[in-house]
């Protein structure tokens, strides 16, 4: 009886997965086999392996890696300090709040901040550096992307640090480990699951960015997400856009499988260590 009830409650979830996950993927794969004139072809897949699209793919992975790396460099110390503050839940809420604001609004806000007559250039001019070209550069693109993704990196790391048994750190210090050694040999390895979850939450969406590349980078940064947008909305070549999306889905699935399997293995190691 309990099994039947459990299966019954699974029906809405399975319907949701079928309609909004499986069906869109099937449609994307279907459209990838047609050219701009509606003829069945494998040419889109052959075209993807040309130097233009391979370079675009490498560029997408490189920028996603940079965004993830800088997000991690900022998020881990921030999450570590949060666990040691008095009102950590309040500070965590303040970090999460910007993620509730529409992405387009945040992008336009940075257009004003980084513009020629914006606040940042105003400060640089005041201190004697002078007006700089900040918008439409790799720096502005990575900076804004890191700002947007930071909450998604901090949250899983914060949760891992909160679940860490403090007695393990105390034991390491009692045995003569320096603060850096305790962090390197105890804290970081035992919170690696949160780091991997955060990297997954940042790296995967960073692969398909397109709005920020247009507004902040001025289309000087070309990613797979930008190419998909161009093919679907500008050139109307849905087949090529769908082909790029297929490879993007495969890349995301591989990343999720790799990080997921390692995460489970790390959790087993943590249980043994505790």
Automatic annotation (TrEMBL):
InterPro entries: MetI-like (IPR000515), MetI-like_sf (IPR035906). It is found in: Cell membrane. Residues 57-259 form the ABC transmembrane type-1 domain. GO terms for biological process: transmembrane transport. Belongs to the binding-protein-dependent transport system permease family. CysTW subfamily. This is Spermidine/putrescine transport system permease protein. Its main location: membrane. It is a multi-pass membrane protein. GO terms for cellular component: plasma membrane.
């Amino acid at each position: 009886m309990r099994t039947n009830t459990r299966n019954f409650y699974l029906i809405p979830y399975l319907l949701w997965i079928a309609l909004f996950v499986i069906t869109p993927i099937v449609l994307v794969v279907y459209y990838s086999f047609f050219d701009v004139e509606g003829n069945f072809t494998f040419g889109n897949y052959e075209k993807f392996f040309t130097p233009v699209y391979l370079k675009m793919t490498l560029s997408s992975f490189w920028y996603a890696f940079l965004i993830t790396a800088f997000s991690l460099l900022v998020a881990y110390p921030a999450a570590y300090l949060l666990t040691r503050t008095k009102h950590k839940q309040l500070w965590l809420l303040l970090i999460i709040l910007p993620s509730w604001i529409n992405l387009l609004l945040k992008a336009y806000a940075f257009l004003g901040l980084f513009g020629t007559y914006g606040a940042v250039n105003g400060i640089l001019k005041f201190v004697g550096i002078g007006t700089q070209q900040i918008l439409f550069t790799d720096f502005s693109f990575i900076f804004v992307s890191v700002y947007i993704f930071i909450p998604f990196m901090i949250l899983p790391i914060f949760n891992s640090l909160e679940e860490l048994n403090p007695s393990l750190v105390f034991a390491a210090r009692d045995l003569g480990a320096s603060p850096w050694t305790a962090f390197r040999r105890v804290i970081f390895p035992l919170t690696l699951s949160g780091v991997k979850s955060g990297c997954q939450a940042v790296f995967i969406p960073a692969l398909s960015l397109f709005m920020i590349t247009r507004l902040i980078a001025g289309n000087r940064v070309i990613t797979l997400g930008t190419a998909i947008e161009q093919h679907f909305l500008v050139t109307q070549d849905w087949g090529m856009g769908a082909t790029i999306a297929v490879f993007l889905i495969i890349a995301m699935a591989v990343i999720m499988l790799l990080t997921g399997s390692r995460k489970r293995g790390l959790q087993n190691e943590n249980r043994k260590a505790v």
